[in-house]
Every structure is written in C-alpha cells, then in structure tokens.
Amino acid sequence: MLYIVTTNRVMTYLTSGRGQGNPARLLDALGSALGCVAFRDDGEMIVGRDDAVYLYGGEPKGAVYAYEGHNP
Prior knowledge:
mainly beta
C-alpha cells in the first residue's frame, strides 16, 4: 500500500494484488504540511496538523489526539 499525502488530502493506493489499477482511495480531505508525516514500526502513518495528531492504518482515520492552542 502506498500512502499519498499532499497539503490538501491523504490517500492510499494499492500497488499490487487485486486492487492494482484502481484509483487512489481518499482517506482524508485535509492534508499536512511538509515534514509532518511519520511512520510507526507497525506501518501505521502519523500525520501532524495544527489541531491534532492523526493516525492512519489503511482504513479511514484511526485515533485522533487533539490538543489546544497553536504550536509553531
């Protein structure tokens, strides 16, 4: 599975198997700033935004850890 993260959206694309040739699947209509994405050892993707930290594991959004205030 290929994760595609832009400043406007988060998507996945199956690169092999039955899903090959299918269009990218939208996981979130909000993206992330450059350098605000990381991966855990289990393959889960972590996306940081101004309002919260979002976890993705191939399904629509997983856990969300919101925080108050703006952290530069």
